[in-house]
Amino acid sequence: MVELENKGDSDKPETWFIEKNELVKGYSIALTKDNVLFHEKSEFQDIEVFENRLFGRVMLLDDMIMVTDLDEFVYHDMITHTPMCVKPDAKKILVIGAGDGGVVRELVKYPGIEHIDMVEIDKMVCDAAREFFPTISRELDNDRVHLKFQDGVKFAKDAPDSEYDIIIIDSTDPVSVGEGLFTKEFYSDCYRILRDEGILINQSEAPFVLPDVVKGIHRKLSSIFPVFRHYMGIIPTYPSSLWLFGFASKKLDPVKDMKPDEWNQLGLKTRYYSTDLHKASFVLPAFVNDMLDSSKEDEDKKA
Ligand code: SAM
Q: Is residue 284 over pLDDT 60?
């Protein structure tokens, strides 16, 4: 855990980072860029790491905030422990993206997980995470983690049927290399390679500022998986802070079929997730429910 003293009004001159998110027009997030630690272009994206006096170290991919020391635990807890509380006997997991290592750091806390395939397209993201985010990336070399530097879209297409208990898609936004991870074709491949109690989790974007992206994800995943529900987390450094995750499954309901007693008996240490918060996170604000209902109407109109 990273303890950050708030350096307050440091006497350093203020240089500001203003996020450029090509999907979110007219809104941004600003952080003082107090000290640049790394800045290189990989084959796939521009990667930068800088220090901010409040959020600690910040990783950018193509000028968009991916992870910060201060609030990374929210996202990594919710994308990992929510499915694991529904299927605590999961043995084989596929993680797509997640180059900072936060998802596998949480997954290896489960002694019952035997094998994790982690498919990250950009090795440089893992290298930068290892160097600058040691508390997040510390399990990238765990012997149960099988790291593959490949395109997750192709990996899912080529993977055998009924291979995984859980798939966690911790991707960038639906732009550039991340775009293919938001298509119906990719989701259908994921359905095929999941076992019969299989669960797919994805980061489902921001209802305040990306309603059309949220509706598109809802439409596509609802048309492929018998069970699909969104749930929420609060992530200060993501656009509008109110963040959705998608829970898609072949048969298990995320709340009715959760196993809180079994999960609590594991005695795992988390900083955001709890089984009570799990239940609450699936209760969505009325405007989000209306948005998701309207995405079905859009579908009917299209049909
Ligand atoms: N938590 C962050 C968020 O919500 O924006 C994402 C963290 S993680 C750094 C996102 C990762 O997805 C990046 O490392 C990126 O390289 C990877 N990625 C993007 N497209 C990919 C693809 N097609 N296959 C595999 N990894 C991909």
A: yes
The pTM of the full predicted model, rounded to 2 decimals, is 0.94
Can you give the pLDDT at residue 298? 64
* 74-89: b (≥16 Cβ within 10 Å) or e: bbbbbbbbbbbbbbbe
CATH code assigned to 15-68 = 2.30.140.10
Amino acid type, 227: V
**Could you read off the pLDDT of 13-64 as tens digits, one per residue?**
789 999 988 889 899 999 999 999 999 999 999 999 999 999 999 999 999 9
Atom number of ligand 1 nearest to Cα 79: 1
CB distance 291 to ligand 1 below 6 Å: no
- The verdict on the CB of residue 62 being under 6 Å from ligand 1 is no
Burial class (CB in 10 A: 0-12, 13-18, 19+), 268: middle
Where do the structural domains in the chain lie, given as residue ranges? Answer: 15-68, 72-302
Judge if the beta carbon of residue 68 lies within 6 A of ligand 1. no
Nearest CA to ligand 1 atom 17: 97
Distance CA 218, CA 178 (A): 17
Closest CA relative to residue 167, chosen from 202, 143, 133, 138: 202
**59 CA distance to ligand 1 centroid (A)?**
12
**Ligand 1 neighbourhood includes 71 CB (under 6 angstroms):** no
**Which of 120, 155, 234 to mutate for ligand 1's pocket (most ligand atoms within 8 Å of CB)?**
120
* Residues 213 and 176 sit within 8 Å (Cβ to Cβ): no
Domain 72-302 class? alpha beta
Residue with tokens 């090795």: 123
